[in-house]
Amino acid sequence: MAVEVIHEGATILLRLSNGPVNALSVGNGFVGDIMAKVRLAVSDPACRTIVVTGAGRMFCGGADISDFDGDPAQIGLLRDLIAAVEDSGKPVIMAIHGMALGGGLELAMAGHVRIAQAGSRLGLPEVTLGLLPGAGGTQRLARLIGAGAALDMMLSGKPVTAERALSLGLVDQLVDGDVVEAALEVARNAPPLRRTGALPVPADLGEAIEGRRAKLRGGLSQAPTRIIDCVAALSDDLAAGLALEAELFGELMRSEASRGLRHAFFGERTVARIPGLSGDVRPREVRHVGVIGGGLMGTGITLALLNAGVPVTMVELRADALAKAEASIRKTIQRDVEKGRIDQAVADARIAAFTPATELDALSDADLVIEAVFEDMGVKKQVFSALDAITRPDAILASNTSTLDLDAIAALVADPSRVVGLHFFSPANIMRLLEVVRGRETAPDVLATAMAFGKRVGKVSVVSGVCDGFIGNRMFEEYLRQVWFMLEEGALPQQIDAAMERWGMAMGPCRTMDLAGQDIGWAIRKRRAVEQPDRPYSGVIDRICELSRFGQKTGKGIYVYPDGRTAEPDPEITKLIEDYSAEIGLTRRAISDEEIVSRCLLALINEGARIVGDGIAYRPVDVDMIYLHGYGFGRERGGPMFQADLMGLPAMLDRLRTLAAGRNGWAWTPAPLIEQLAAKGGRFEDLNIQG
User: Fold this and answer.
1) Is residue 48 located within the same domain as residue 98?
2) Does the annotation mark 106 as catalytic?
C-alpha cells in the first residue's frame, strides 16, 4: 500500500498502489494516505497542477468491499477525499487506464479533467452488490452525461468502454499511448477548474426518472429504486443530494439483500482456495480434453469447453447419437453468431476444435477425459475400466456423476490418484457451477488441476468430498423430501412452487423436477429405498411416476405442458394427491406459504450443516456457492448457511427441535454442528473465516 509522489516540474503525479486493483480501502489507511498526499500537493507552492493515476494494470477497481461490513460512517472518509479533490484550487487531471470502477470512477469524476487510455473501461457496478454509488456517483455522473445515460449505467452496473465514455462526455480525451504522459502534457497548460459538482442539473432529468421507474421490477434488493431516488434529488444544492445519497447508501448497506450479495461476492473467491493444499502444488497442463457421451450432458460439457477455447474429442459409440450431438453443437455455436455474441471467425475456430469419434481409442493422447454417460454404476465402471487401458498413465480421468460413489469408480483404475469428479450442472454450457469431487485417493495436483480447469472454462468451482449426492444433491434430497411430505399433508404443487419462487428461488421444486425429468429422481429414490430404508419419502411422487408422467419431456409430470414448455396445473394430479392423503389416513390441512419456505429452507440448512460437520464441504460458504450457482437459490439471499446466520442458530435449533417432535420428526434431528455452534453463540460465518 503506497501513494507514490513524483515531481514533474510544476506538476505532482500521485500514483495509487494498493494491491492488484488499487482498492480505495479506508480500513487499511489507504484512503487516508491519498487524502494526505492530495493536501500536501494542494498546499505546495511549487505545485501548479496534480495528476492522479493508478499503479499496475488499472486506475482503480473501486472501494474495498470489506469496508462495507463496518460502520457506514467510515465511508465518509472516501467522500471527504473526493470533495477535497473536486474543491482543490489547483487543476486535478485523472489519468485512467485499465479500469475505473465504483469508487474509482467516483474519484475520477471529482477531477477537473479526465483522460482515458483506449480500451479502458469505466463503470459503477454497485447495484450488483445491492448498493448505490455512495461517494457522489449518483450526483456527479448525471451532471456529466445526462440523467438517462447515467441511470442506465448505474442500474445495469455494466461498465462502458473508454470510447463510449468519450462520446457520453464522461471523459474529456482518449489516447492510444501513455495516458500519464498525455495527462502531464495537459497539466503543463494548466486547464481550467471545471468542477463536476457545479455543473447544472441535466435537462432530461424528469423524463429519465419517469421512464426508469416504469421499468422497475420487484425484488429483495431496493438498490435500483434508491439509485433512481438519488438521481431524482438532483438540484442546484449538491450538498443536499450528497446527504440523501449517503443516507440511502447506509440503509442499503445494512439490508439483507446487500449483505447476501456481498457474501456471494467474497464467497466466489473463497471457494477457490483449498485448505491444506500446499503452495508448491502446481496444476497440470490441459491441452486436449476427451468427453465420453453425446447426450444432453456430454453435448453441454463439450460446448462449455469449446466456448472456452479448449480442443475437445467427443466419443459416442452410437454413430446416430454422435451425429445428433455434432449437429446440436454446430447449431448452438452458429446461433451465438446470429445473436451477435461471437463473430463467424470465432465460431469456425470452435467448430474446428471439435473432433467426433466412435471409438475410445481416440482419447489415447488426451490430457483429461470427462465421462458423461448414463448415471448407472455398472455403465460407469465399464467405461473407467476401458479408459484405464487406453489413456496415458498421467491423463486425468473425471466422472460427471451426480450421486454415485466416486471411490468405487476410481477403484477400477490401476492408479486411482488420477481420478476426480467433475460434476457439471445442466445445461453445462450455461450453468456456472462445477462440483469438483475429491476422491479418497485423488492426488493434490489432480485436484488443483480440476479447480484451475474449472476457472479456465468460466465455472465457479467448489470442492466436495465423496458421499451420496455430494454436496448439492445430498441437500436437494432433503429439500424434496419435505416438498413431497407437504403435498400429502395439504399443499399443492403450484402453491409450493409459487411460494419458493416469490421467496427467491429461480424455479420451484416441482417445476424443477419436471424439467430435470421425474424418472431420474424416481431411479434415485428406488436405489436409496434399498440403501437407506430408515429415510422414507412420501409415496405420492412415485404414484405420479408410475403413470409415466416424467415431466416436460413427456408432456406430463406434476404439471401438464400443452405447448411443450409452459407448466399448467393438472386437475388429475390434484385428485391423485388428495386421494393419496386419504389413502394413508391423513386429513389435509391448510399449509401457509411461510411454512413452505421455512421447512424447505430448514431442510437445506440442516443437511448443509451435516455436510460441513462431516468434512464433505470445507466451509459453510462452499455450500452457499453451490446453491447460488447450481440450484437457483436467490443471490440476494446469500445461500442456505448465510440464511441460517440471519435467523440466529439458537432460534433455528428451537424450530428444528419442535419439528423433530412432530410428524416425520426423524427427518428433523438437528445436525450436531448446529447444536455445537448454538451452544457457544457461534455462526457459520466464523467457520468461513477459519477455513
Assistant:
1) yes
2) yes
